[in-house]
Design a protein that fits this description.
Elements: H1 4-20, E1 29-30, E2 36-39, E3 46-53, E4 58-65, E5 71-83, E6 92-97, H2 101-105, E7 107-108, E8 111-112, E9 115-123, E10 127-134, E11 141-149, E12 155-164, E13 170-174, E14 177-182, E15 193-199, E16 202-207, E17 212-223, H3 233-248, E18 252-254, H4 258-273, E19 275-278, E20 281-284, E21 295-296, H5 297-304, H6 308-311, H7 314-328, E22 341-343, E23 348-350, H8 358-373, H9 376-395, H10 421-440, H11 445-466, E24 467-470, E25 473-476, H12 491-494, H13 501-508, E26 514-515, E27 518-519, E28 528-529, H14 530-542, H15 546-562, E29 572-573, H16 582-596, E30 599-603, E31 606-609, E32 619-625, E33 632-639, E34 642-649, E35 652-660, E36 665-668
Antiparallel strand pairs: 1-2, 2-9, 3-4, 4-5, 5-6, 7-8, 7-13, 9-10, 10-11, 11-12, 12-17, 13-16, 14-15, 15-17, 18-32, 19-20, 21-22, 22-23, 24-25, 26-27, 28-29, 30-31, 31-36, 32-33, 33-34, 34-35
Helix pairs in contact: 4-15, 4-16, 5-7, 5-8, 5-16, 7-8, 7-9, 8-9, 8-10, 9-10, 10-11, 14-15, 14-16
Length: 669
């Protein structure tokens, strides 16, 4: 068995190098099927990690190819609903397994496998590993592994297909194996938990030339009062494939750029799979071996919930609605801060950084979600939460008219002053959304007018309070005392404030902030968090800076999809070792819907649209958009010097408009 400790020290070195060096050649390539593959060449050893999730399990697969060309695998399992003590944010049952089924279990012609050479690793929501095997007088054998989590069970499966590609029969034996771990009952909320690892086994079988044999492994966990059920790995694989197909068949991006198309396609998977069926209902969780069976005002309410209506994924919409219902539990007449996070399947809260601007995050997210969802009854139910959060923010305006808070979403990792640019910008956008939603819900004209007035005053206050010269750029100070550039100066661009867009964009893409991994959190640091990069790319495109935005979007997408750590947007570096947190993939999708296509919800059945069609593209489309109570296609094409917009429902052209470039239009369905 490989030395796992040494391997993952090597992995850390590789990923650190990725953060600091420029890869001249992509490691991965896009297949015609939409998957991506790493065809193994001389650039080994190389190690990476990827997270995949289902309703009751998440797994971080740490994998790679060693210097001899063999596959290396360690599985890090998380069971979010098997709670440990203390039952806090991180209290999910977790275990790591480095069990190598191939080298430890298989014998061919009574001999163990001497050598494995990996030819290709493919990712498509499932990991597929294709290898050649050799042993003494073995003949020629090929092994294909399929690695994936169950969609609905607290289980993970591996399918092994061993094929004889030689000229003579070989004898294959794989023993049945069952390993059981019983956890310490004093450390579990429900006492003892049972973890099982099983290999289905193959009795001595002669495989003729051209034939193959299939066997399976699975890992599962359950409470001690639950009778173990056998996992049908083949059925679970079909269910996983069906989920991927469902996600890929809706909100389909078609552009001339295969990298952006594929990155968007993968982002839909990661953004949607990380939803857990808890005792408190469906909860979307960030993941990263830390954040499960819980919700946050930023990751869920602000980042990903406004995206789910566009995808039309029922479980995603259920999780979004459920998260807002959980936050609604904490609105109060005294206007005390709403919790930053609701954890432990809804039983507890986390508020360790104080008020992070959570009221503004929730107001922004719930308003955009309700508008895009297009369900009037649901919007009525969500309105009290929006109304309360807006009033909370109003009550926390300082003497200069911007919103105060204890910290921001980075929770004091970097300074944010007593009032930061992000919180006030989100509050501004939420006020605008409230005017649109309030009108469709029949709210009073005086209330709607009050929100309009507050938004106008806040926009001016944002410019007066935060606007200024920072490191030579006429952009924004992230907080009043701030004198170095910060990545979140991009936030006004995402809420339609373009007063300082030219200088802000110059600052974002200057050497002060931009690196090959996106934006530094603060000029002069080495830290980057993808979330601000994803906001920036959306804002740059939404503001009409198409060519510059696309140049950096293509570079970023290529790095994340085809580089050294693939295939999703990540949380941060060095913190978390670039974990594949789920909501960041939702933010990537919003670069496309809100940035490239310029969709801004302004009613339950309406949105404004300002597409940014790059000069070297003639067309781009979003098929099967499931928002605004409809299922429609949006086609954008070039017509001379103008842009043609087609809205199609049930294969019928419903709306056709020809507009000037950088022109915003209203679409009513």
């Amino acid at each position: 068995m490989k030395n796992i400790i040494l391997i993952f020290i090597c992995q850390l070195i590789v990923l650190t190098g990725f953060a600091k060096s420029n890869q001249k050649e992509n490691r991965w390539e896009i297949n015609t099927s939409g998957s991506i593959s790493w065809n193994i060449d001389s650039r080994i050893p190389h190690y990476d990690h990827i997270e995949m999730s289902g309703e009751q399990i998440s797994v971080v697969i740490r994998y790679g190819v060693d210097e001899d060309g063999a596959f290396v695998l360690e599985r890090s399992f998380v069971w979010p609903m098997l709670r440990t003590i203390p039952n806090n944010t991180h209290a999910s049952l977790m275990r790591r397994f480095g069990w190598d089924v191939m080298s430890d279990m298989i014998t061919v012609n009574t001999r163990r496998i001497d050598q494995e050479k990996v030819n290709k690793i493919t990712l498509e929501g499932i990991m597929i590993v294709e290898s050649e095997l050799s042993a003494h007088q073995n003949g020629n054998l090929q092994l294909t592994r399929y690695l994936f989590p169950s969609t609905t069970e607290a289980a993970y499966g591996e399918k092994y297909v061993l094929r004889n590609v030689g000229e003579r029969a070989v004898l294959v034996e794989v023993p049945y194996a069952n390993s059981v771990i019983r956890t310490d009952p004093e450390k579990g909320v429900d006492g003892e938990y049972i973890i099982e690892a099983t290999v289905s086994g193959v009795p001595g079988t002669s495989i003729e030339a051209g034939d193959s044999v299939i066997f399976y492994a699975d890992f599962k966990a359950y409470k001690n009062d639950y009778t173990s059920q056998a996992i049908d790995v083949e059925k679970e694989l079909i269910k996983r494939k069906d989920l991927i197909s469902e996600l890929q068949d809706n909100l389909v991006l078609e552009t001339p750029d295969p990298v952006i198309n594929t990155m968007f396609s993968f982002a839909k998977i990661r953004g949607s799979e990380s939803i857990y069926k808890t005792n408190g209902g469906y909860m979307h969780g960030p993941g990263g071996e830390s954040y499960y069976a819980a919700i946050w005002a930023n990751d869920q309410a602000e980042y990903i919930n406004p995206f789910f209506p566009f995808l039309g994924y029922d479980t995603g919409n259920l999780s979004a609605n459920n998260s807002f219902k959980h936050f609604t539990r904490f609105i109060n007449d005294e206007y005390k801060p709403i919790p930053s996070s609701i954890v432990a399947e809804g039983l507890d809260i986390w508020n360790g950084a104080g008020d992070r601007g959570d009221g503004a995050m929730i107001a922004y997210g719930v308003a955009r979600y309700a508008l895009a969802r297009g369900d009037k009854q649901e919007a009525f139910e969500l309105w009290p939460l929006l109304e309360w959060c807006l009033e909370y923010c109003r009550r926390n305006l300082n003497e200069y008219g911007v919103v105060t808070s204890d910290s921001d979403e980075l929770e004091n990792r970097f300074p944010s002053g007593s009032a930061n640019l992000t919180t006030s910008s989100l509050y501004y956008d939420a006020l605008l959304s409230a005017t649109y939603l309030g009108k469709d819900l029949g709210k009073s004209a005086s209330q709607i007018q009050s929100y309009k007035k507050q938004a106008k005053e806040l926009r001016q206050a944002i410019d007066d309070y935060f606007g200024g010269i920072v490191e030579g750029f006429n952009t924004y100070k992230y907080y009043k005392e701030n004198n170095v550039l910060r990545s979140w100066i991009c936030i006004p661009l995402t809420v339609g404030i373009y007063d300082r867009k030219e200088e802000t964009i110059k600052a974002l893409f200057s050497p002060h902030l931009w690196t090959e991994n996106g934006l530094l959190t603060q000029a002069g640091s080495e830290t980057f968090w993808d979330r601000s990069t994803l906001y920036a790319l959306r804002g740059v495109l939404a503001s009409g800076q198409t060519e510059k935005g696309m140049e950096y979007l293509k570079n970023y997408s290529t790095q994340r999809l085809l580089g050294e750590h693939v295939p999703y947007a990540i949380e941060a570096w060095p913190e978390g070792n670039q974990r594949h947190l789920s909501a960041e993939s939702g933010l990537y999708c919003r670069i496309i819907t809100e940035g490239l296509f310029g969709i801004r919800p302004v009613g339950l059945r309406s949105f404004t649209l300002m597409p940014s069609l790059p000069k070297n593209w003639n067309t781009m489309s979003l098929k099967k958009i499931r928002a605004f109570g409809n299922n429609f296609d949006l086609d954008v094409s070039r017509k001379g010097k103008k842009i043609k917009i087609d809205i199609i429902i049930d294969n019928k052209l419903i709306i056709e408009k020809i507009i000037n470039e950088e022109k915003e239009i209203l679409i009513e369905l």
